[in-house]
Amino acid sequence: MANAILDIQHLKREFKMGSEIVRALKGVTFDVQPGEFITIMGSSGSGKTTLLNILGCLDQPTDGDYLLDGVNVKNLSRNELARLRNRKIGFVFQSYNLLARTSALENVELPLLYNSTISSHERKEKAIKALEAVKLADRMDHLPNQLSGGQQQRVAIARALVNEPVMILADEATGNLDTRTSYEIMSLIQDLNTQQGKTIVFVTHEPDIAAFSSRTVTLKDGRVVKDSKNENVKSAKEALESLPVNDDY
Amino acid sequence: MNVVNLFRIAWKALLRNKLRAFLTMLGIIIGVASVITMVAIGQGSKQSIRDQLSGMGSNMINIRPSSNVTVGGGARLGASSLQTLKVEDVDAIKEKVNFITAVSPGLQASGQAINGALNWPTTIQGVSPDYLPIIREWKIKEGLNFTEEDVKTMAKVCVIGQTIAENIFPGGQNPIGQTIRFGKIPLKVIGVLAEKGENTFGQDQDDIIIAPYTTVQKRILAVPYVQTIYASAVNEQSSDTATQEITVVLRKQHKLKASDEDDFTIRTQAELISTISSTSELLTVLLAAIAGISLVVGGIGIMNIMYVSVTERTKEIGLRMSIGARGIDILLQFLVEAILISITGGIIGVALGIASAELVHALLQWPILVSESSIILSFMVCAVTGVFFGYYPAQKASKLDPIEALRYE
Ligand SMILES: Nc1ncnc2c1ncn2[C@@H]1O[C@H](COP(=O)(O)OP(=O)(O)OP(=O)(O)O)[C@@H](O)[C@H]1O
Ligand SMILES: [Mg+2]
Questions:
Q1: Is the pTM of the predicted complex or chain greater than 0.80?
Q2: What number does the ligand 1 atom closest to the CA of A13 have?
Q3: ipTM rounded to 2 decimals
C-alpha cells in the first residue's frame, strides 16, 4: 500500500556471535496503516524486540527494506535517524529507562531538549501537558525511585508522547506490571490511538493485552506466522471497570 | 541543540553526582591554586627587589677607575689605588654626552661625625648639587641642598642623613644651622635628608653625610683625583647609549689608543636590576612549571573520571540516543561536563590561590603580587585541559550504538 506509515519488505536481521550467526529475523513482510493499533505477539526469542528496534530506527536490518512514511531508512545517516526518532517516534521500554535522580518533569522534557525549535518555555508547557495526559501532573517533581512501577511507565509514556510523534512503539510496556495497572496503561494507549489517531505498535506476550488492539501479528522463529484482524476490539476502560475490587481486605 | 540546553544538561548531570564532581575538580583546584600562589610569590619577590633597586635611582650610572695594565706577574692594581678619574672627566662628560641629565664626581671618606660630646662613625660623600635631586632622586626633608657656589668656595656645609641626625642630635633637636665636625673639619648642617631605609644589601642608606665634592676632595682627603663619577641617564632605556657615549668621551680624555683596554668600568643600575630580576624571573618560571605539572595531573584525573562516567552511563547514553540525541549532542554533553568541571575547579582554584597567597603574605610577610596574567593564563589552561582531556571520553560516548548502549548492564 502506497500510504502505509510502516512498510517492511523481507526484513532480515542477523547477529554474528563469533563464528556463529544468529538469525533473529528471517524475512518479515507486512505494513501498517496510519492510525492502526497492532500488537506483535510471539514466544520468547521469536524476534519481537529485534523487529521493534528496527521499526524504531534504533537498529538497522541486515537485509530487506523498511519504509517509514515512504522514506527508506537504509539511505539515512546516523543524524537523520536520530532526528526521525526525535520527531516521529515515541518509544516505550519494558524497563521504563527513566533517568535516575531526575524528576518526572525533566524526564519528560528530555526529548524536547534535542529539538532546537522548541523554547524552554514551550518545553515545560508541553511536558506538563504530557504528564497531565497520563494523569501524573501531581507527581511532576517526584524522582523515579519515588514512583510506583505503573507510574514510572506512565512517565515513560508521557516522554514518548511529548514530541507529538506519529507513532508509538512499545516493547512489553506492561510486562512488569500487575493486571490492574496493565489495563490502566492499555486504556491510556487506546485513548492515544482512538482520540489522537496515533499509530501504535505494541509488543506483548499476553493474549488479553492483544485483545485491546485491532490487529495482531504473530512471530515465530523470526517469521510472521499469523497476521489477523481483530473484529471484536475490547475496551480497556471497560475491562478495568469489570475487574474485581480487591483493595478492601 | 542550543548552547544553553547543553550547559543545562551537563550541569544537571554533574549535580547528580556532586561528590564525584568535586573530587574530580580537586585536582584542578589544587593545580590552579598552586600556580596562582607560586606565581604570586615569585612575582612579589621580583617586584620588591625591583622597587628597592629603583629606590637607589634606576637611571644611575656609576663610573669607577679600573686597571688596564698588568703589573709584574700579571696581578692588576686594586681599584682603590687607581687615580685615573679627574674632575675634568666629569666636565667632559657633562659637555659631550647627550643621554644624561646630570653628572657628579664622587669622593668618600670615613670618619667620626661629632656634635659636642656626641660622636658617630660614618661616611661623608662629596658630590655636586645635582647628585641628590637628580641622580639619586633623594628629597631633602628639612633645610636646603648646597649650591654650585658652595662647590666653588669649598664651603664647609653639609646635608646629613636621618641616622646621623638621630644619633648626634638626639631628643628632637633641630640640626639645621648647627655646626658639626667631621674629623677636624667643622661643617654647618644646612639640610636633613628624607629617610631611605636599608638598600637591597642591607646597608643603612641614611647613615651618610653629603657635602660639596670640593670640600671633601680638598679639605678632607686632599687628593687631586675623584673616586667615582655618578651620572644619570635620561631614562632606563637610554642607559646603554649613555654608557657607550661616556666610554668614547673617557677614552678620548685619557688618550687611550685603540688597542688599549678601558681604564674605567661603567655600571648601570638598569643592568643590575635586569640581572637580579632575571634571576627571580627564573624562579617564577620554575615555580610555575612545578605547579603546572599538578594541573596536568588534575587534567588526567578528569579524563579518568570521564571514561568511568561514560562506561557507567552507557544506558543513559543509549536512552538519550533512542529519544533523538545525535552523536554530536552526546559528544558535546560530555565535553561540556568536562569543561564545567575544569572551569568550576578553575574558579575555585583561583579564589583559593589568591587566598593562600594572601595567607603567605600575612603569616610570613613575604611580598606577593597576584598578577592578572597568571589568573587569565591558568584559567585558559583549565579550559584547554577540560577540552583536551574530556574530548576522548566524550567521543567514545558519541560513537556508541544506541541498541548496544541500551542493552548494556
Ligand atoms: N545483540 C544480539 N546479539 C546476538 N543475538 C541477539 C541479539 N539480540 C537478539 N539476539 C537473538 O535474536 C533472537 C531474538 O531476540 P529478541 O530479543 O528479538 O526476542 P524477543 O522475541 O524479544 O524475546 P522476549 O519475548 O524474550 O523478549 C534471540 O535468539 C536472541 O538471542
Ligand atoms: Mg523482547
A1: no
A2: 12
A3: 0.92
